[in-house]
Amino acid sequence: MEAISCLISRRSVREYTREPLSQQEIENVVETSQMASCWENTQPIRYIAVLDEDLKNRIADECTKKFPWNTENIHEAPALIILCAIKGLSGYEPDGTPSTTKGTHWQSFDAGMAASYLCVAANALELGTLVMGRYDEAKIKEILDLPENYDVSCIIAIGHPAVIPAANERKPLKEVLTFR
Question: H helices of 41-98, where?
Fold first, then answer.
């Protein structure tokens, strides 16, 4: 798929076929996601692929109770990727002092870059994704036994799309672009 077409055609998918994902499919998507730029090449992003149905459903039921739409979306997806960032790498000097006035902002920036690459790579491989940001982080870390220095940046549902929704309308370019 041509790059521009792949970027433009990527959608948030909420309906998937029951076809399971293979470890190889996940590896292909994550390998591309790893190419996203990051703070001083610290490569702070970690990916936890959840292919086990019982574990995926446990995350849905125990980690998104206050956000039922995410519970439903997780149940619908054949797999999840829990995208994490290692604390204290993005935006910091080797001695731990902040490199900029933005503090932990760069950690979120690096995670967003990785998530975008992951979603576009999945689209290029004819997979659908949905990025979710409402969840109980402490509970996810407990269930997956994640290290203390991992921050859960987002949950990404992934699978073979059953329905690809239409694009949402975008603001006019003159509203979002300024030339000086």
Answer: 53-63, 68-76
Could you tell me which residues come within 8 angstroms of residue 134 by beta carbon, excluding any fewer than 6 positions away? Answer: 64, 66, 67, 70
Q: Is the pTM of this model over 0.90?
A: yes
**Identity of the amino acid at 78:** P
Residues 6+ apart with CB under 8 A from 123: 1, 6, 9, 10, 11, 129
Strands 79-86 and 15-16, bridge-based pairing: unpaired
- φ, ψ for residue 48, nearest 5 deg: -115, 110
Give bridge partners of residue 129 from the DSSP assignment: 12, 158
Backbone phi, psi, residue 174, to 5°: -65, -20
Tokens representing residue 176 in the block: 């979002």
Per-residue pLDDT of the chain (180 residues), as tens digits, is 699 999 999 999 999 999 999 999 999 999 999 999 999 999 999 999 999 999 999 999 999 988 999 999 999 999 999 999 999 999 998 888 899 998 889 999 999 999 999 999 999 999 999 999 999 999 999 999 999 999 999 999 999 999 999 999 999 999 999 999
Sorted by where each begins, the domain ranges of the chain are 3-176
Q: Which CATH superfamily is domain 3-176 in?
A: NADH Oxidase (3.40.109.10)
